[in-house]
Amino acid sequence: CQPVLRTAKAHNAVVNDMVFERRNELLATCSADKIVMVWDIKRGYCTHKFTGHGDVIVHVNFIQSPNPDDTSIYLLSASEDGQVKIWNLMTKKCISTFNNHVSPVSCSTQSLDNRYLFTGGRDQVVNVYDCRLWSLCHSLALFETVEAIVAVSENEAILHSNKKYKKKGKQNTTTAGYLATVGDLGVLRVWDVSNSECIRSQKEHKRKDDSDSEDEKDEFQKKDLSIITKAYTNLIWGSSSGKIVITTADHD
Questions:
Q1: How far apart are CA 236 and CA 171, in angstroms?
Q2: Residue 236 pLDDT > 90, yes or no?
Q3: C-alpha–C-alpha distance, residues 234 and 248, integer Å
Q4: CA-CA distance, 115 to 52, in Å (whole number)?
Q5: Kind and range of the H or E element at 216?
Q6: What does the pLDDT look like over 100-125, one tens digit per residue?
Q7: The dihedral formed by the CA atoms of 49, 51, 55 and 59, expressed in degrees to the nearest 10
């Protein structure tokens, strides 16, 4: 067990999310105190403190500019009321605010070329934003609570190596690319973002309705335990291996 190297008083309430910047030099945290803080990891002090959300902040994520000449570092924060803010760490200002979700935002990611930003929420929607204009392009209706999303390319193994995925519809090559999503249905799906079309999906397992009696549920489980599906809560994509790691609601 490694000893604790440093402890800092960060927030006055529960810390809901934290994320490292890609160079592992900065750490962002958000809290129920409606504050976002950015930390210099090596020196151990707070470099930025952002306020402006009117509700509990539940998600933070560092994002990159699609312009390779832009050296600024950007940070996304999202609150329980569905509001999303984009912060420029260089100017220490909020450069854009989005109010396109109607419930908490649970996850976010960017397209592989950093041109598009995706936010997923408990309102069963993924919103797609253009990072050059900081404007909403369109929305994907997923019909499930969205817990995690990750951008993938057409050539990745997730689209080609697993026979469990059934191809649906046409494929196309657009800058928005493809998005893998998971949520409360316990199904991994891949979307063609530009066409708002699910092109591959795991077979959706049968579930027992919560309204059924306990005796009926027990009998249902005796017949086939494998068809009881847990909700997926997180999704990690290995860009070098082309493989994914998924966690479920029971922490498996």
A1: 23
A2: no
A3: 7
A4: 26
A5: helix 214-223
A6: 999 999 999 999 899 999 999 999 99
A7: -40
